[in-house]
Design a protein that fits this description.
This protein has helices at 16-28, 47-57, 61-64, 109-131, and strands spanning 4-9, 32-37, 78-81, 95-98. With 137 residues, it is α/β, with parallel strands linked by helices. It has a single domain, classed as 3-Layer(aba) Sandwich (Rossmann fold), CATH 3.40.50. The protein has a four-stranded parallel beta sheet, with helices on one face. α1 (16-28) links the parallel β1 (4-9) and β2 (32-37). α1 (16-28) packs across α4 and α2 crosses α4. It is globular. The chain starts with a strand and ends in a 6-residue tail after the last helix. Keywords: Arsenical resistance.
Length: 137
């Protein structure tokens, strides 16, 4: 049986969604496949996000990840919007939820650390809900 495909989506695909993709790959790959994408691309992943994920989890996002458009990823079963505030992109899926996470871009390391830990907890919660069939796709 194929694993559930989860897309973490925001507008720029450079910070929160990239962190979620990395943490999904690290913490939940036994339950779901993680992708991230946006409606716009950036030339590179937010360097503060890269540094914080490296520092906390010893994972280099730049080795396997890059900014992608929604059309660049497989059709997801589950879409998680990160908290776009204004125009969260629409992506067809079987289940969707918004995590409402503030963008730490341009803020302190403390904010990036808080964001990373929040995403970690939410990824683990999502993994558990999928594994327990609380979310069906």
């Amino acid at each position: 049986m194929n694993k559930v495909k989860v897309a973490f989506v925001c507008v720029h695909n450079s910070c929160r969604s990239q962190m979620a993709e990395a943490l999904g790959k690290m913490l939940a790959s036994d339950v779901f496949e993680s992708y991230s994408a946006g409606t716009e691309k950036r030339p590179y992943i937010n360097q503060d996000a890269v540094r914080i994920i490296k520092q906390l989890y010893h994972f280099n996002m730049e080795e396997a990840q890059f900014s992608k458009l929604i059309s660049d990823i497989p059709t997801p079963d589950i879409v998680i919007t990160m908290g776009c505030n204004v125009n969260c992109p629409y992506v067809p899926c079987n289940y969707r939820e918004d995590w409402g996470i503030e963008d730490p871009s341009g803020k302190s390391d403390e904010e990036f650390l808080k964001t990373a830990r929040t995403i970690e907890n939410m990824v683990l919660d999502l993994k558990e809900r999928i594994a327990n069939n609380e979310i069906t796709v």
